[in-house]
Amino acid sequence: PGDLVLDPMCGIGTTLVEAIRLGRHAIGNEYEPRWAALARANVRHITEHLGPDTATTGQVTRGDARHLTRLIHPDHHGKVDLVLTSPPYGRTVHGQVRATSETGEPGVLRMDDRYSHDPFNLAHAKTDQLLNAFTKILDECRRIVRPGGTVVVTTRPWREQGELVDLPSAVLAAGKAAGLIPTERCVALLAGVRNGELITRPSFFQLKNARDARRAGIPMCVVQHEDVLVFTRPNHSAAVPTGTEPELAATGQRRP
Questions:
Q1: What's the confidence (pLDDT) of residue 182?
Q2: Pairing state of beta strands 225-232 and 181-189?
Q3: Are 214 and 198 in contact (CB under 8 A)?
Q4: How far is CA 80 from CA 76, 135, 139, 184, in A?
Q5: Cα angle 12-15-18, degrees, rounded to a multiple of 5
Q6: What is the pLDDT at residue 237?
Q7: H/E/C letters for each residue in 34-90?
Q8: In angstroms, rounded to a whole number, what is the distance separating the alpha carbons of residues 253 and 250?
Q9: Alpha helix (H) ranges present in 121-179?
Q10: Nearest Cα residue to 139 out of 79, 171, 168, 179
Q11: Given strand 158-160, what is the order of strands in its sheet?
């Protein structure tokens, strides 16, 4: 309690709301104007809900997280205790589907699979471009978090046309390239539990990938977890490795 939490890509501000509710101060940044406005409204709502006696504060800036040190007030530089964030995902892991049999056409209709129509949003970037951008974002976070502070990234692997996109390993490399020290790699299960058994909860298209592969004789499993990657900012001024971009690009490639 009393610590300062930052989410450089805060969406509608869930991390900020939970931080404030738990007695932490919170700063968020969001690229999309619509979500930034919702994040501000949510921060205002939780602050009013807690009443005038609350000592916690929250604020939201809007802009590209690759320029975070320009967006966050200099008074907070080197003062953030915890960065908690997740890289933006594209259409592969978002959306809902509905059978089109109601209209007489075979197949499915995909809906709500875009939270951005801005072509410059990183959610639309290719994996290699996303990784290079996310390395820059983590480097900006390193400059803002206090020495010895913590940076946590939740990220997931997914399958695209049957091939595994190992984003967590690539983000781990991105954190190292940004000058952060990896300290933990945890697994957060996404499955439910029913009658003592794990129940899968993947997206429709991730489930379809696995079913199609099994019908073809490939023993593919559905991804049922996110990786929680924990980094620490060094207490001393560490040199940021150079020449890591090719390695990041290779790490981020799809794998069978």
A1: 97
A2: antiparallel
A3: no
A4: 7, 19, 14, 19
A5: 115
A6: 56
A7: HHHHHHHHHHHHHHHHHCCCCCCCEEEEECCHHHHHHHCCHHHCCCEEEEEECCCCC
A8: 5
A9: 127-144, 167-177
A10: 179
A11: 158-160, 163-165, 254-255
Give the pLDDT confidence of 203-255 residue by residue, as tens digits.
Answer: 777 788 888 889 999 998 888 889 999 999 998 754 444 444 433 333 333 33
- Higher model confidence: residue 33 or residue 191? 33
Tokens 């410059």 map to which residue? 120
C-alpha dihedral over 208, 210, 214, 219, to 10 degrees? Answer: 180
Tokens at residue 112, please?
Answer: 């709500």
**C-alpha distances out from residue 103 to 73, 95, 97, Å:** 53, 20, 14
Contacts (Cβ under 8 Å, ≥6 apart) of 171: 87, 131, 134, 153, 155, 227, 229
Identify which has the larger pLDDT, 29 or 221.
29
pLDDT at 106: 62
- 248: part of which helix (H) or strand (E)? helix 245-251
Q: State the pTM of this model.
A: 0.79
The structure tokens 């290699």 sit at 128
Which element (helix H / strand E) includes 149?
Answer: strand 145-155
Asked whether the beta carbons of 138 and 182 are under 8 A apart, the reply is no
